[in-house]
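can u do me a favor
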C-alpha cells in the first residue's frame, strides 16, 4: 500500500470557493479502483493550510489516479484558487494495526 500525506496552502479568503472543487476531487478519487482512503482537512490553527491524506492499494492504482481527468481539473483550478506550497510525500506501508 502507498500512503501519501502532506499539505497544500491557499489564501484563507479562497477557502469558500475551494471547498466545492476539493469535494469533487475527494468524491471522484474515492470512487477510483485502488483508492482506500482520500481526504482533505482544514488545519484548526492555521487558516488556509489543508492536510492531505491518501491511501492507495498499489503503485498502478496511484499511476491511474495521476492520469485521471478529475486530477487534471483539480490542478487546473489551482491558479484561480491561489493554491501553492504543495508538500506531499509518499510512503510504502504494510497492513494497519490498532495502536
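np, heres the sequence
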Amino acid at each position: 500500500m502507498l500512503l501519501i500525506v502532506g499539505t497544500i496552502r491557499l489564501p484563507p479568503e479562497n477557502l469558500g470557493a475551494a471547498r466545492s472543487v476539493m469535494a469533487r476531487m475527494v468524491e471522484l478519487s474515492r470512487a477510483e479502483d485502488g483508492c482506500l482512503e482520500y481526504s482533505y482537512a482544514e488545519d484548526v490553527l492555521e487558516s488556509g493550510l489543508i492536510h492531505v491524506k491518501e491511501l492507495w492499494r498499489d503503485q498502478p492504482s496511484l499511476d491511474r489516479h495521476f492520469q485521471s481527468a478529475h486530477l487534471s481539473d483539480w490542478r487546473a483550478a489551482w491558479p484561480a484558487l491561489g493554491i501553492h506550497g504543495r508538500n506531499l510525500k509518499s510512503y510504502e506501508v504494510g497492513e494497519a494495526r490498532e495502536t
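DSSP finds three helices and four strands in the chain. hope that helps!!
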